Amino acid sequence: MITYIRLLARGLILFIGGIAMTPIAAQQFPQIEQGYPGIRLEQLYSGLGVPWGMAFLSRAQLLVAERRGNLRLLDLEKNSALILDGGPRVVAEGQGGMLDVAVGPDYANDGWIYFTYSKPSKSEAATTLARARIRNERLVDWQDLLVTDSATDTRRHFGSRIAFDDQGHVFFGVGDRGKRDLAQDLGNHIGTIMRLNLDGSVPRDNPFVGDPNARDEIWSYGHRNPQGLLFDRETQRLWSIEHGPRGGDEINLVLRGRNYGWPVISYGKEYWGPIAVGEGSSKPGMEQPRKVYIPSIAPGSLIMYRGDAFPDWRGDLLAGALKLQHLNRISLSESGQASGEERLLEDLGERIRALLQGPEGWIYFSTDSGRILRIRPD
Fold first, then answer.
1. Is position 169 annotated as part of the catalytic site?
2. 41, 167, 188, 346: which sits with the fewest CB atoms below 10 Å from its CB?
């Protein structure tokens, strides 16, 4: 039955792609009116499910992960779209499903593409890091690198974004899975950011290797739900953006072995009343965020802009906002403190999910309504 539904969905999407996509020439993409000066907003595609993650395989090929489980390859030059066969079964319920996708750092030589998704585990689901290659329009050599110890009976807070450093490591995060106190328990992967070698093995210099009460894969802990993660090679800094409760979204500079406090400290309040979460907003031994959003913007992604198309934005963080529906730009001081904020595309009225810097330095993003858009200099 599942196979039959996938075949029907594939046929429908190919039909939609054939009439909705246009050639790659920038002037041929529909322009969307918006009020921010100096940028041009264009729609590349529409009619998708929730496009949770995106990655460029080449200048014209964009791989999109849809939360419902599809992995779709868009070719912006050939005006084509197809769903790749060979993907895993996912738990596409609540906040789970096919999550992030990222091209490995040596993709040109080894062809590895990395994924995070919610993997079925009896009646539960666990965030999983995997990798595969593409051959003849299907995924091959699928490998689950780490099925995290994060399965719960909820469908909340799976995370999960992927980032690579320049020393052969991959990072990814998992939220508190609706069991907030477990984010302080190093004996599982809940509420953590993890660091692995590219083949899924554990680096010997991870902070908790050898601790019998901790998981070797953990890099940092005490995170509520990291939905943006990036490694900036110019500064060698790892950044996350994560959902707070009612208020208190955070941007964190993620450091080796540190505790980010959830749920002991928080800047947010309980959903059921005007009561602060935890013991307060700070505590010795727990890290402070570099920026807090009150009220929450509900972040969906995070990138560091390093392109030349928007020189005034170079070195700034860009975050997609789901609840407050805009593109959030954060300027940073040399020490990595947030020093300014600007909100773009508020008139678009879209939940901005995934963000990606394109090969030409333009910014590509997806929306929960199933659109792929980009902004470029006007």
1. no
2. 167
pTM for the whole structure: 0.91
Name the band, by pLDDT with cuts 50, 70 and 90, for residue 253: very high
Q: What is the pLDDT of residue 76?
A: 86
Q: What is the pLDDT of residue 123?
A: 78
Q: Which pLDDT tens digit goes with each residue over 25-63? A: 333 788 999 989 999 999 999 999 999 999 999 999 999
Superfamily of chain region 2-262+291-377: TolB, C-terminal domain (2.120.10.30)
Question: Residue 76 is encoded by which pair of tokens?
Answer: 């912006």
Q: What is the full DSSP assignment across 225-270?
A: -EEEEEEETTTTEEEEEE--SBS-EEEEEE-TT-B--TTTB-S-B-
What is the CB-side half-sphere exposure of residue 258 using CA atoms within 13 A? Answer: 16
Is 141 a residue whose pLDDT tops 90? yes
DSSP 111: -
Q: CA torsion, points 75, 369, 319, 275, in degrees to nearest 10?
A: -160
Residue 204 phi, psi (nearest 5): -70, -20
What is the rounded distance in angstroms from the CA atom of residue 98 to the CA atom of residue 115? Answer: 8
Domain ranges (residues) in the chain: 2-262+291-377
Please provide residue 318's backbone torsions phi and psi, each rounded to the nearest 5 degrees: -125, 130
